[in-house]
Structure formats: C-alpha cells, structure tokens
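Kindly go through one protein, given below as sequence and tokens. The question is how this chain folds according to its tokens.

***
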Amino acid sequence: MEPVFAQPSPELVDRPVMDQDHYLSGNIWNLESCADDAKSIKRWMVDELGVPKQHIAMLLDERATKQNIEVTLNNHLLHNNRIQKGDAILIYFAGHGSTLKAPHDWLLDGPRRCNVEVLCTYDHDTKGVNSRIAGISARAMHTFLHDLSKAKGNNITLIIDSCFSPPSPDSRDRSSIRWTSTSKAAAEDLYHGSTGHACPRLQKRNESFYSRHRSSHTVITACKPGTTAAEGKDGGKFTSAFLEIMRSAPLHITPSSALLEQIRLKMAHQIPHCSESSDYLFDRVPFSQDPSYIPVLIHNEKGIRIELGSQHGIQKGGEFSLHAHNYSGSRNPTIATVTVQDVYSNWCTVRSKCALSLPRNCWARHNQKMPCACLRKMLHALYSTAFQKASHLPPALSISDIKDSAGKSELIETAEAILASRPLLAPLMK
C-alpha cells in the first residue's frame, strides 16, 4: 500500500497517494500493481500538472504502515504552512479495502451493528503495541479531511482504487481484486490511532467512502458500492483509465462528470463513483495560464500576427506552433505550425504552407529549433577555428559534443565547457 502526498505547484497543493502491493499479514493476498499505480500518479502530477517533486510524499509497501500514513497526513498536509487556503490537495490510495463489524457504541441511536469500511495499510490485521491494527476507517478519514478542510479549504480530492465488497464465490479472478477479509482485528480496534486519527464514538451515521453531498472534500472511488475493483498487468483498471483520460482531455474546461463518464466507458464493466462536490477537477486550480503561450491576432492586411519580434530574439524563418488554449496541465496539442515571414521590433507575421481554419482564439508557442541551430553552427565554426590555431592541445572535447546537444541550455553548457578546455577560444568569443 502506498501514500503519495503532493503540494501545489503554484496552485496544486500537497496530495497524498496511498498504495500497496505487499502486506505484513500472511492472511492477506499480495497485489501486483499498486506501487506502480502510485508511481504513475506521481509522474502525472510532476510531468503533466507541474507539481514539484518535493511537494509529493509517497509511502510504498513496508513504509505504508498505519502510523506512517497518519503521521504523513498530519505533517505533510494538516500542519504544512506552505499550503494556502484554497490550494488543491490530492490524496490517492491503491491497495486492499476491507470491512469490520462496528463496535456497539458506534452509533448514537442504538446498538445496531453495521459494517465499517477500512483502507488496508501494510500492517493491517497484525498485532500492534496495544491492539490489533484495523487499517484506516472511512469515519477516521472523513474526520481528518473535515479538519483539513477547515484549515486549508475544501479543494480536497480523495481517490481510492480499492473496493469494500468481496468477489463472488465463483469468481476466477480473485487474485486481481483489491479486497481482503479481516480475520483478527476486532471491532474495538477501530478506535485506536496513533496521531489523532482514531474514530470518534457515538456518531449519528455510519460513514462510508461512498458518502455523497460532502462540502469539505470530493471522493472518487474505483467502483460503485457492492461491486469490486480489479487490477491487471497495466495497473488498476480504474487508475489506468483515469490517467489515460486525464492525459487526453482539456481538463480546465471538462466537467468532472464528463471525465468520470469517459473513465467508465474505458473500463466497461467497472463503474467509478464520485461524491457530488466539485464541478471541475481540483476546482481548476492547477490549470493556470502559461505565459509561454502568446495570443495570435488575425490582421486583415498582415495576416497572422504574433506579439513577439526581433527584440525577443525572433528571426525570419523561425517557427511557431499554434494551440487552442494557453493553460498548463491541460491537454493542448498543436493545431498548426507556422513560419515567421516578416519581423518587426516587437511583433512578427507568420504564414502556413497550407490553408488554415483557426479557432476564434488561439495561442502561439515559439519553436526553439532555429536559435539552437544557429548557436550550434556558431560553436562549430568557433571550435574549428580555434582548433586549427591550437591543434597541439589534447582533444578534451570533440565536435560531437556539440552535435549531440539538443537543447539551447545544453548548447550553452557545451560552449562553457569548450571555453574551459580550450583557453584560446576565449579571445574569439569576445
């Protein structure tokens, strides 16, 4: 099981991801792809949403004990001063779910017994210091998230790739279902928590991870109540579909309900469930406007105009890619590539080799290939000239070092390295 916690990149805050493949108890069936699911969620947050790696806390397998998860929830989220009110918080869990019979004082209105849903930590159903370890119950998690929302705002999303119902007795895919029975932990063990996450007693209702209409947070589960969540070679069925849809949709304008419907269609037989809280994923907070995208103006006489010119390093023959929007973290494929035609001080005109039908509003992004090519040629010429004048020097760097440098920053680093190894280059660079 594992928790991953991330804090916002300018606007995406700390999030916890929990997931686990291996369990301490010999009575619990080990899973195969929960750790990979957690790592995939982390890659998505870092690569697609721009979340800094240091804002993510991830607990895998033996590190994902109940105590470690509770401490991380407190320190990384609740008591984290970097998180501002309204920042987006994501908590992700992948692993087994289970149920226990509730204690007699679980509900206010009588001694009725009911089932309590729990997330199975690495040490679930094993002997602790003072009691058996009973995982993290829905009531304990909701209590924590309620406290977290009071401190950090209600832009909190809990994603669970687990289930709380067993497969049918004749099921052939038992080993791929993210559910396990609890054989040793007792009802009273639900009240034990190491850092204030223990369940409160005598509440009006039996909390469920499927509870709807919460104002403090949104919960997305891999399946509906009474059904099962499965995994395969490519990961959890839900997590795989979730990431595929997240990477293929313009998230800043796609309602959460539409995203969930697309995920459901991908999974076919497994239907995800979502509480009705946020209209858009993370309240659109991570999807800020990216200043590297420049508005495109359609000019009657000049054609397509972009507000960058020679003072910004734009050269005739350079390239721009055109895009439908300017939001980071939201799918934004290139709709056309155009070439710079005329360059002025602070703007330029571009044209396409084929006829374009552009949306009313679109944005351009400068393609850096042309400046890099120019820099590469310059370094090649300087290096060759200097080498002719200092051929007796040992070849610490070869011209292949320049050819193999792909990006502009790498080329600059290569130039500095050449200067360091070829002192005679310095006068030529001035």
